[in-house]
Specification:
Length: about 100
C-alpha cells in the first residue's frame, strides 16, 4: 500500500476529462478532488487525514497539454473503451479492498 492512512472515509476521484466546464485538464484536474474534500472537511466535519484525492491519469485529448513540455500528466491521447473501464474497475476494487467502508465519489 502506498497511502499511509489506515482509515480513509472518503475518496474523490477524477480522470480530469470534464472539469466543471473547463474541459479536459488531464492530470491538472487534481485541484477538483482536493477542493471537494476541503469542503467536506471544513463543512462536513470529516477529518482531513480520513480523505484521499485521486486522479486516474489516462492521458488527455487537450492538444495544448499534449504539446506542453512541462505538463506532468501522461502525454498520450486519452484511453477509452474497455481498457479505460478495466482500469477504473481495478482502482475501485483496490480501494474497496483496502478500505471496505470508504465512500467513493
Amino acid at each position: 500500500y502506498n497511502w499511509p492512512q489506515r482509515d480513509v472515509q472518503v475518496i474523490v476521484v477524477t480522470d480530469g476529462s470534464r472539469i466543471l466546464g473547463l474541459g479536459d485538464l488531464g492530470a491538472n484536474g487534481m485541484g477538483i478532488p482536493i477542493g471537494k474534500l476541503s469542503l467536506y472537511c471544513a463543512a462536513g466535519g470529516i477529518a482531513p487525514h480520513r480523505v484521499m484525492p485521486v486522479v486516474i491519469d489516462v492521458g488527455t485529448d487537450n492538444e495544448a497539454l499534449l504539446k506542453d513540455k512541462f505538463y506532468l500528466g501522461v502525454q498520450k491521447p486519452r484511453m477509452r473503451g474497455a481498457p479505460y473501464y478495466h482500469l477504473v474497475d481495478e482502482f475501485l476494487q483496490a480501494a474497496r479492498h483496502r478500505w471496505p467502508n470508504v465512500l467513493i465519489q
